[in-house]
Amino acid sequence: MVSRTIGIGDQIKKLRIQGGYTQQDLADKLNVTRSIISAYEKDKRAPSYGKLIELAVLFDVSTDYLLGVNAGQSLDLSGLTKDEKLAVATLVKTMR
Q: Hey, which CATH number is domain 3-95, 1.10.260.40, 1.10.4160.10, 2.40.50.140, 3.90.850.10?
């Protein structure tokens, strides 16, 4: 069963802050205005499919994660480095 856990605005804000970006920094990276980022974070506006993918790539997360969709058990690896994520993936493969 698929369920929503957290809004996209909350996810974007959390990832932006974790990444050390201001709203203006994120706006510059996405070629949008700061007010659009603010609207995303307040759930007053949803990113287009293209911007959703750009956000997922920038923050190294899935689009499902950004959308707050939980399609089963998952781990939040968003705060880990790429090397740490690789180590977790290796550990999981070893345990299967």
A: 1.10.260.40
